[in-house]
Amino acid sequence: MRIMGLDVGSKTVGIALSDALGWTAQGLETLKINEDENIFGFEQIGKIIKEHEVSKIVVGLPKNMNGTIGPRGEATQRYAAELEKLFNLPTVLWDERLSTVAAERVLLEADVSRKKRKKVIDKMAAVMILQGFLDSKN
């Protein structure tokens, strides 16, 4: 059984999966969504859950630096609640402060071009969210 990690934004969802033992996170894809038009990608997420036998979902919760939850965090909480309801899986909200910044730094250090970084940053952030969760459990 694998664990899925998600970095949820208003336009994309970065998706990562753990290995079968729950030790490492690998980026899977970046899903295009449109929050304004109520297009959230739940159908595609459901396919991934079924195909990879996902048993738990970890959703990055964007908090303000002082620990409070702003509008983006509230939208993420609603998204996570909907995932739990639709797929009947435990859903964990994981503090994702600075995960996108860290992902950007890793990609910069790897000398990935700006155009390519834009395509993979959300998937990379999902990997960092999931890996942080996995590391806390092992």
UniProtKB/TrEMBL annotation:
Residues 1-103 form the YqgF/RNase H-like domain. This is Putative pre-16S rRNA nuclease. Could be a nuclease involved in processing of the 5'-end of pre-16S rRNA. Its EC number is 3.1.-.-. Transmembrane segments: none annotated. The keyword Transcription regulation does not apply. Keywords: Cytoplasm, Hydrolase, Nuclease, Ribosome biogenesis. InterPro entries: RNaseH-like_sf (IPR012337), YqgF (IPR005227), YqgF/RNaseH-like_dom (IPR006641), YqgF/RNaseH-like_dom_sf (IPR037027). It is found in: Cytoplasm. Belongs to the YqgF HJR family. The keyword Cytoplasm applies. One of its GO terms (molecular function) is hydrolase activity. It is an enzyme of class 3 (hydrolase). It holds the Pfam family RuvX.
